[in-house]
Amino acid sequence: MFKSFIKGLVVGSGVFGTIALLNNPTTGEENRKKVKDYSREVEGATRSLTQSLANLQNAFADLADQSQTTLTSVQKSVADIGTSFIDRSEPQLMRLMDRVEQLQDDLKIIQDRLENAKARHVDDEPEDDDADDNE
Predict the structure, then answer these.
(1) Are 110 and 118 a contacting pair, CB within 8 Å?
(2) How does pLDDT run across 42-98, given as a tens digit for each residue?
(3) Fewest CB atoms within 10 Å of the CB: 44, 69, 76, 130?
(4) How far is CA 101 from CA 87, 106, 107, in A?
(5) What span, in angstroms and rounded, lies between the C-alpha atoms of 21 and 31?
(6) Segment holding 53, helix H or strand E
(7) Residue closest to 31 by CA, chosen among 17, 41, 21
(8) pLDDT band at 108 (very low <50, low <70, confident <90, very high)
(9) Angle, CA 56 vertex, CA 50 and CA 59 arms, to 5°
């Protein structure tokens, strides 16, 4: 559809341009000069557009390079921060694990003492004698 539109635009421009030239009150020489001047303007505009597009392409390439450099830098920074965090926190984690182990050992000792105390208490209690009840 777009190709048909462009084709119609080109053909229409050619047909109506020819009609305009034939019905134009200026001489052929003047028309040729106008067409020549116009084609020079179009050529200059085309060169300018081509240069602008090349500059834009270079700018995008530079942006891509800078983005890649920035991304690499950020990745390295994040990795360094993670490594630094692990290096700093590992000794603290080891101390915490040692402390938890010590607390577990202390808890086991307390449980053993409670069990021993319970056992002694049960052994120390007088047994119910039927003789005491009959007195």
Answers:
(1) no
(2) 899 999 999 999 999 999 999 999 999 999 999 999 999 999 988 899 999 999 999
(3) 130
(4) 22, 9, 10
(5) 8
(6) helix 28-124
(7) 21
(8) very high
(9) 145
